[in-house]
Amino acid sequence: MIKKKSIFLICLFALVFLFLILSYINYGSTISLIANIISLILLIVAAIYYRKNNLTKISEFLDNKKWFYIIFWAIALVAILVRVILFVYVPAGLNVDEASMLYDAYSLLHYGIDRNGHSYPIYLEAWGSGQSALLAYLTIPFIAIFGMNVFSARIVMLLFSIGGIFAFYYLIKLITKNKFASLIGMAVFSLVPYTIMISRWGLDCNLFPYMFLFSIIFLIKANDNQKFMIPACILFGITLYTYAISYIFIPLVLTVIYIYWIVKKRVNWKYFIISNILLFLFALPLILFLMVNYGWIEEIHIGAITIPKLSQYRVGEVGFSNFFKNLIKIPLLFFTQNDGFTHNSIYSLGIMYIVMFPIMIYGIIVAIKNIRKEFNFSLFVFLISLLIGLFITLLIYKPNINKINIIWIPYIVFLTYGFYYFVYNSKQTFILTAVSVLLLFITFCSLYFSVWNKEISSQFNDGLMESISYANQIAGNELIYFSDEISEPYIYCLIVDSESPEGYLNTRIFLDNYYRKTSSYNNYRFLIDITTISDDKTYIMPLDEYNSKFSKNFDREYKVFENFVVIY
Prior knowledge:
This protein is of the alpha+beta class. It folds into two domains: 4-89 and 138-455, no CATH class; 464-567, no CATH class. The chain has helices spanning 4-27, 30-48, 56-63, 65-84, 96-111, 134-146, 150-176, 179-191, 193-198, 207-222, 229-239, 246-263, 269-293, 326-336, 357-373, 377-393, 408-423, 427-448, 451-456, 464-475, 490-497, 501-507, 543-549, and strands at residues 123-124, 131-132, 300-302, 305-307, 480-483, 509-510, 518-521, 524-528, 538-542, 558-561, 564-567. Helix 5 (96-111) packs across helix 21, helix 7 (150-176) packs antiparallel against helix 8 and helix 16 packs across helix 17 (408-423).
C-alpha cells in the first residue's frame, strides 16, 4: 500500500511533468526534455518504494573510514573537475560585466583609480549605476601575476566555488550530525547547475551566495558558543561588499536571530557587543555611500579611499512598488528556474534541476515538522533566510536568477534535506534517485560544454577582443567604428590596449552624462548606426548584423572572428 507522503510526492512530480510538457516549445531542447522525463519516471517509482526497506547497510558501509573517504574525495574530484575543465573557454568570451570588473581591477592595481577616476572606491561606478567592489579587489593579485585576461577574471569565483563544496559539506554536518546526509549535501551542492555555472564566470554578485554560506556557518556555531559571533559578523561585514541586496538581507536575518537569542537568554553580551561593533565598522563606509548617493552629503575622500557619488544611483532597484508586480513573477521563477536569459539556465534543466523541485518542497515540510517537534536552530536560520529572501525578491525591479541569488543557498539546503529524508530509509529509493540525479548531471554537462556554450557565446561577446586587435593592426591610427548593436564595446578596447585610465578619461566623450554611454575615446567611435559602408573606414559589427545587412553583393575585405566581423 502506497503511503500518503508517497502520493503527495507523486502528485508533485506529475505537476512538474505536466509543466515540462506544456513548456517544451519554449525550451527547445529534446535531449533535456527526454532526460527530465526519464528522471521523473525514476523519481515516481522511487516515491512508490519510499520507506519500504532500510538503508542500514549503507550507513554501516559509511562507518568504514576507508570507504567514507573514498566516496568523499570521489564527489570532491568530480565537483572540482566540472568547475575547472576549460573554465577559461566555457563560457566562451568575456561577459560585459566581467570585462568591467577586470579592467577596473587592472586600473586599480597599476594606477590606483578605477576607469571613472575614483581612487580605491568602496563601490565601483562601472557603467554609472555601480558595481560591487569586492570581486575586483580580490582579482587584483591574480592580474599582478597572470595579467589582464579571462583566467584572472574568473579564478576568484572558481576558488570560492571549490571552497564552497567543502563548506556546504560541513554545513550539512552541523545541521544533521549525520555522515550520510553530509555526503548527500556535498553531492547535491556539487552537481546542481547553479553552483557550477556561477563558478565559471566573474560576475560580482556571484560572490554573495558563497560569502553568505561561509558567514552562516559561524552564525550557527555561535548558537552554542558565542565566541563565533566575532568571525560571523566579520564575514557578514565583508559580504556587504558583494551585492547591494545584502544591505537589506543581512540586517533582517540577524535581527530575527538576535531576537531569538535574547528571548531564549542565549546572548553573551560581551561577544555580542564586540562582534556587532565590528559589523558596524564594516558597514559604515556603505552607510556613508548610501548617504552620498541619496544626496544627503557630498562625495567623501578619506586618504586614498573614495566613497563615490555615482552618476545614476539605482534608487528604484528595490521598492514596495514592485511587490504586487512580482507576486506572480517570483513564484513562477522559483518554480521554473528560468528567467529568459539563456546564459543563466540551460533549457528545461533549470538551475537546480526542475524535476527535483518537489523534493525541495518536501525538504521544507520535513524541516518545519522537525523544528516543531524538536527545535533545530540551523534549520530555523535557513527557514528564516528563505522567507526573508523571498520577501526581498518581491521588492526587486525586474527580478532574474542573478538578482534573487539570496534564495538559492537556502534552496539547496532544503533540497538536500528533502533528498536525505526521501532516500535514507529505502535502498530502492536511494538507487533510483541517485540514477536520476546522475542522468540529469550528465545531460547538463553534455549540453553545457557544447551546444549551450556555442549558443550563449554572443552574449559573452566571444570574438570581440580578437576583432579589436585585428582592426587595430589594419587601421593603425585611423578611426575604427563600432556598431550600436554591440553592448559597451569600449571596455573591451581598454582591455585589448591595456589602456591607462588617464588615457581613457582624457579622450572619452559620453553620449549623455546620466547613462554614461561612451560614444568615443582615442581612435574608437562607438554607438554607430551602420547603414552604409564607406570604402575608407574600418568597422566592427556583430556577425548577425553583417549577414542581415551586407552579406549579399559585398565587395569589401572582411574577416570573421566568432560572433563579430571586421570590415576594412
